[in-house]
Structures are given as structure tokens and as C-alpha cells.
Specification:
381 residues; alpha+beta; eight-stranded antiparallel sheet; five-stranded antiparallel sheet; 9 helices; globular; disordered C terminus
């Protein structure tokens, strides 16, 4: 699953668990960037945000640098942030009301009521926050079966793990000209985070690209060095823009081994290891942030196009980022399994329960009676 239940801390406190992040130019409003941060997998219709957490989006100007050591992208130090906080709910029973506010690093603030369909706006910033239907689609059970059996297990017709499930969603529209300084961009690296609001700030979760943690950091069996270590909470504590040295070796070993596993599933090596036995995609996925070009218009199915073009040393053609209806998991599986040089690898699920809208707040209204999630059932050959 994209980032659902991505570690012990997320299991313990799902309201801080980032399930997904999206970044795309508005399909209908030129000059507007849409950012979506979803949390709380399998949320009930009465779910509310934590008053002890800041839900944060961070953006930094970036450039494509194929020869930059350790990454395809050079990310600047200048940072733009949007931080969202929520008050304790007031009222009782069905009349509970929760208020929130989002503030940009430039000082623009919008205050709103949670679940107000119209949201609120001020100074080039518009925000909605509340329960929506989960836009993510993926057959997570078949992915787990693939890992256990070491064979591609996806069916032509899959079953989405998130079918008719809800999340808590923060949807933000930004006026690009009013938000970013002239000369910055057009390429930006984007990261979502949940952090504590107390005197000591602690990063609880972070999110860059879908399923990096659950498909590249979680599986242990292929890691002959750190097989007994759960690394996802350690991974979450790291700054996506500047990995620290403490756990770097363990994370590199884990991701390197899992990338090699996914590459092996079509029976051939599409990503030969370099002279240091590193997978060619290792540095790219360790630099775990989404990349978007704000000079280009909205384009469907543009997820990972900028990265793939950079790998091929050719100019990218789209805005990149990720929009709500993109089949990002099929793209992710295909690039890992055959390097994009074979048939598209599909999990058999091509769209969410309800497709997202092209207008604010984009995500479909919540499912009033979401089914009880089932534990994965793995059939071994």
C-alpha cells in the first residue's frame, strides 16, 4: 500500500500515518499548484486530525544533475513550507466541530472548519481538510504474495486493498506566482511530513514517492545483513533532503537488496549493479521526494516521467509530480521489474473506488459505510 501502515509507529497511532501525497498543476486553473496530503488509513466517517501534530509539506527548488554525486537531482537549501495544525474538537456527539489552520513560510494563513466542503482561502492559498474516500488503488495482498512466493502474483483483475475506504485529507491550492520567489524552480522537490508540535520537534512520518517504504524498506528476507531489523521508523525519522550517517548503511543495504529482488521477477537482469554492487536506482529512491515542473501544464499519468527522462539523459516532457488518478503503482512496478523495457507490469487495479474530480477538493466524498479491512491471505505454491 502506498504508505499505509508504514511502520510500528503508524500502526500504533494511525492519525499520524501518512497514506499518500500528490502534487500536480490544477487541471482547470493555470498558475495553481495542488498539493494533497492524506493520513489515517481506514478512517471512519467521524475521524478527526490530531491536535498534537503538524501536518507539513516542504518544497525546495531542484535541478536535474545527471552527474551529481549520489542523485539525479540537486536540491537547494531554500525551502517553502505549508504547515497545518488542528485544535481540539468542540461540541459533543454528532455535533463535534474541529477547526484548523494552514500557514505558509511566506506568512499566509487560512483558517477553516474540518469537513467544510468549500474550504477557505486567503492570499493565494485555499485549503480543505476532512474525511474523503481514499484515492489510492493497489492490490496489496498480491504484492505481499509476490514477496513471499518470489513470483509475480498479480492477477489480470485485481482487488484494491483500499476499495471503499476513507482517509483524512488535506487539500491545498497555491497561487504559484504569489507563493514562490521569481527565479526559483520551475523544478521543485516535494516531501510530506507529520511532526510533533511540542518543544522538541520529532518527525513521525515522511513521504516522497509511493510504496518506497512498504516495497523497498519493509521486506527483510532479501537483506542478508540486517534481516532482523524493522527499518521503517528509522527511515521516517530521516530528513528526506539530507540523510544522516547513522542508519545510511542499513538503509542502503536493505533497499539495494529489495531493488535486486524486484528486478529478478521477470527472469532477467534489467538493472546491472555498478562496480560497487549498487543497484542503479538506489540513489534515486534514497532521494525520496516527488519531483514536479511548475512551468508545464497538468498532464495525466505523468508520475515518474521526469525521473525516467533524467535516467535516459533526455529532456522531460510533462509536469511530473503525481495526480490523483495516476496509476503510479503500475509505473513503479514496471520500472523496477523490467526497467520500462518490457510489457507494463500491472497489479490488475486500474482506478480508485471513485475517480477523483478535476475541481476542488478533488477527492471523492467519503464512503458512509466502509468495509472492515481484512488481514492479507497469502497462498504459497
Amino acid at each position: 500500500m502506498s504508505d499505509h501502515a508504514s511502520g510500528p509507529r503508524a500502526f500504533a497511532d494511525p492519525v499520524v500515518d501518512i497514506t499518500d501525497m500528490y502534487a500536480f498543476p490544477s487541471p482547470q486553473q493555470s498558475g495553481t499548484l495542488v498539493l494533497v496530503l492524506n493520513v489515517f488509513p481506514f478512517a471512519g466517517t467521524a475521524a478527526l486530525f490530531s491536535d498534537a501534530v503538524e501536518y507539513r509539506l516542504r518544497l525546495r527548488p531542484a535541478t536535474i544533475a545527471p552527474n551529481h554525486p549520489g542523485s539525479l537531482f540537486a536540491v537547494g537549501r531554500k525551502e517553502y513550507t505549508i504547515g497545518c495544525r488542528f485544535a481540539l474538537p468542540s461540541g459533543d456527539g454528532d455535533s463535534l466541530v474541529q477547526k484548523g489552520s494552514c500557514t505558509t513560510s511566506a506568512g499566509a494563513t487560512v483558517r477553516f472548519n474540518v469537513n467544510d466542503e468549500l474550504g477557505s482561502e486567503s492570499r493565494g492559498l485555499r485549503v480543505f481538510a476532512g474525511v474523503r474516500m481514499d484515492p489510492f488503488f493497489f492490490d496489496g495482498r498480491k504484492a505481499l504474495e509476490t514477496i513471499v512466493t518470489r513470483k509475480l502474483a498479480f492477477a489480470a483483475q485485481g482487488n484494491s486493498t483500499m476499495f471503499r475506504q476513507n482517509v483524512l485529507s488535506i487539500v491545498i491550492e497555491l497561487d504559484i506566482a504569489r507563493t514562490f520567489d521569481p527565479g526559483d524552480g520551475p523544478l521543485f522537490a516535494v516531501v510530506g511530513e507529520t511532526v510533533t508540535t511540542g518543544p522538541m520537534e520529532i518527525r513521525l512520518e515522511r513521504y516522497g514517492r509511493p510504496d518506497v517504504k512498504n516495497l523497498l524498506v519493509f521486506p527483510k528476507d532479501f537483506d542478508t545483513v540486517n534481516r532482523d531489523i524493522e527499518l521503517r521508523d528509522l527511515y521516517n525519522q530521516e530528513d528526506a533532503f539530507k540523510l544522516g550517517p547513522a542508519y545510511g548503511g542499513a538503509l542502503r543495504t536493505r533497499m539495494n537488496s529489495n531493488l535486486a529482488f524486484w528486478d529478478s521477477l521477470d527472469g532477467k537482469v534489467d538493472w546491472p549493479l555498478d562496480s560497487g554492487s549498487a543497484h542503479p536506482l538506489l540513489a534515486l529512491f534514497l532521494s525520496d521526494f516527488m519531483v514536479i515542473d511548475l512551468s508545464k501544464p497538468y498532464a495525466p499519468d505523468s508520475y515518474f516521467e521526469i525521473e525516467q527522462s533524467a535516467l535516459k539523459r533526455i529532456p522531460h516532457q510533462t509536469c511530473g509530480g503525481r495526480s490523483l488518478n495516476d496509476d503510479a503503482i503500475d509505473t513503479f512496478l514496471t520500472i523496477m521489474v523490467n526497467g520500462g523495457n518490457g510489457p507494463r507490469i500491472s497489479d490488475g487495479v486500474d482506478q480508485a473506488t471513485v475517480r477523483a474530480s478535476p475541481t476542488f477538493p478533488y477527492l471523492a466524498p467519503p464512503e458512509p459505510n466502509p468495509p472492515v479491512p481484512k488481514a492479507p491471505e497469502i497462498v504459497s505454491n
